[in-house]
Amino acid sequence: MEERYPQEAATLQELLAIMREHDLESLRVRLGDAIYELQRASDGQADGAPRRYSEEPAAPAASAEPDANVSKVLAPLTGVFYRASSPDAAPFVEVGHRVSPGDVLCVLEAMKLFNEIQSDESGTIARIVPENGELVSQGEELFWIQR
């Protein structure tokens, strides 16, 4: 695979390193139109056969797209999404919370650095897209804020 798909091989190696670093049992990441899903084998090692799926366009759900009064907060970098500053701390925000510019929404961990993601505008959190502990890629949606 490394000869035919060097970029994909590098991506998979990076994802495996993230799994090991965070001791994750499984990892599912969407990069563009591809979805990578890695799972630990029964012996505790990362599965040697990651699966790659092409995402099929889904029928639009009732709440799949925000209305004109909703802005999306996008990930400024690739990292692990955390809703709180530590596992025992309360989340920075919940759906329905009012936020103002400068309020911390979450942290993204990249290369052992925790980057606070702040709101750029006032509004109400309408949706939290990723799950806590999920790897997100730069440009992916993190939050919807209703203005």
Q: How would the blueprint of this fold be written?
A:
Layout: H1 6-21, E1 26-31, E2 34-39, E3 51-54, E4 70-74, E5 79-82, E6 98-99, E7 104-110, E8 113-118, E9 123-128, E10 135-136, E11 141-146
Antiparallel strand pairs: 1-2, 2-3, 4-11, 5-7, 5-10, 6-9, 7-8, 9-11
CATH homologous superfamily of the largest domain, by name? Answer: RNA polymerase II/Efflux pump adaptor protein, barrel-sandwich hybrid domain
CATH class of the largest domain: Mainly Beta
Strand numbers in spatial order across the main sheet: 4-11-9-6
CATH topology group of the largest domain:
OB fold (Dihydrolipoamide Acetyltransferase, E2P)
Shape: globular
The figure for the number of domains is 2
* Main sheet attributes: strand count, strand direction, barrel closure: 4 strands, antiparallel
Give the amount of beta strand, in percent: 35-45%
SSE pattern, N- to C-terminal:
HEEEEEEEEEEE
Helix content: 10-25%
Mean of residue pLDDT values: 79
Q: In the CATH classification, which architecture of the largest domain applies?
A: Beta Barrel
Low-confidence stretches: 44-63
Q: Would you count the extended β strands for me? A: 11
What's the helix count? Answer: 1
| Whole-angstrom Rg | 17 Å
Structural class: mainly beta
Spatial gap, N to C terminus: 47 Å
